[in-house]
Predict the 3D structure of the following.
Amino acid sequence: MLKIENLHVYYGGIHAVKGVSLSIPKGHIVTLIGANGAGKSSTVRTVAGLERGKGSILYKDKNILGRPTEEIVRNGIALSPEGRRILPHLSVEENLRLGAYIRNDKAGIAEDLEWVFSLFPRLKERAWQAGGTLSGGEQQMLAVGRAMMSRPELLMLDEPSLGLAPLLVKEIFSIITKIRSLGTTILLIEQNAFAALSIANYAYILETGSVVLEGSGQELLHNPQVKAAYLG
Amino acid sequence: MSLHNMRNYICTALLTVILGLFLYYAENNLNPYSVRILNLLAINAILAISLNLIYGFTGMFSLGHAGFMAIGAYVCTLLILTPDQKVAMWLLEDMPDFLLHLSLPFFPAVILGGLVAMLFSLIIAVPSLRLGGDYLGIATLGFAEIIRVVITNIPSITNGSLGIKGIPEYANLWWNYGWLLFTLYFIYALLKSNVGNIFKAIRDDEIAARTMGVNAFFYKVLSFCVGGFFAGVGGALTATLISTIDPKMFNFMLTFNILMIVVAGGLGSITGSILGSVVITIMLEWLRIVEDPFSIGDFEVAGIPGMRMVIFSLMLLLIIIFRRSGLLGMREFSWDAVFNFFNRRKQEEWRRS
């Protein structure tokens, strides 16, 4: 579904992503794992059109590299950005409705809103509360729900477990697998290697801007190198 | 319409009628000085609301308001002056013929003033809205200065630095408060709609807004242009209220005054902008008493010109130190809040008895 070939991203003089290639088949969870500064976020931000890069990003065999973000979102790619980026002064429901900004089908939006609320009952309880007053875990749920409101075919999640208690991480990850079972393809960025590898069909490990290792989730979970570097 | 909404509509209508009655009373009974302050108050509120839309609701730090006001003021003035007045007043250079005979009634002239200001804000927005934060402030400040310098240097159209005097004083209480109500209604409706939420989303987190597929640039330009329109209208009303304009009037201090109202009232609150205009407009006049000579016991103090600005700046400092988000923060007036307040008090009394 998505094929990144030889992607390079620069920030001024810093070469953040150095020729990353990866492919995401339809209906899979693919995860990108790596330490801070490995180039994970830069890669997804470039896919989402927030950064410029060199190389090619083929989505359904069309190169989308360098296209504006709004066009990429309309084509069916949603990004739940790092750090949640909830709109603090809008209510939970308004946040979710803005997630469906590109859609015009009122009935469908209402349906998906109910669906998100059924997925995250806690958001329903707080529908009229300002986004900024939610706890970290609730904000993360809102960020995932908001990204789903555009009814994406490819959902990119940038560190959904960041700063969450282990129990909440488990909850978020079980919802991610649920979203996959409903037919959405997922690109998952994680530092929490164990949780990510456990649910991923395929994984890439990034170090200082390049892919150093790839394989199926289970394979990497038992790889001694990975164990030593990321699983402890 | 629910009973609840009906109640709110009726309250709003009543308040409008009360405002109307007050204006009628003011026009016939108050002295010209008080009427002038009431007029200034309305114009300041229009300007503050329009700047609040740009800065408080969309998060674009713009310092170009004086420039848009200048355009609105000059366009409107040129349209309402008669050819005779123009011939008599243009001393530096003669006015080109097509402008000399261009004449419109007051209302369309104000609208055209606003529209031309909006056109200029569009021209300024496209290159400079790619900048963010303080850089945008500096760029818009620069554009406002350019507008002022250009006005000074095209005497055949603007009468240059001599300015224009004897502008008919059309902007009475009814026009000014009519425009204020329209501005209020328009911007309130805009912010209540989905567009308002998009503005706030861009203000709070532009990246987040963009990842939802929002064309942030388009909405920023939209907000800037709507703000520019009402700034132009405010400028046109100012010109026809005080009957004299010249380029020096539209310098940075004017933008600063409006910015002060917006910040003191609360960034992101329309109610705050109105409250800010009331407080600051009245304070600026009332504080004139501190500039008069006075005596403490036997000690005579001569009048100190400029003293009110000192006190005023101190007041602003206090607001910024103790209420950083302004008098109202982001809160808005709503009938629901008013009724809830009274209901709660009633309930408390009932519980106590």
Q: What stands out?
A: DSSP finds 16 helices and two strands in chain B. Chain B has a mean pLDDT of 91.
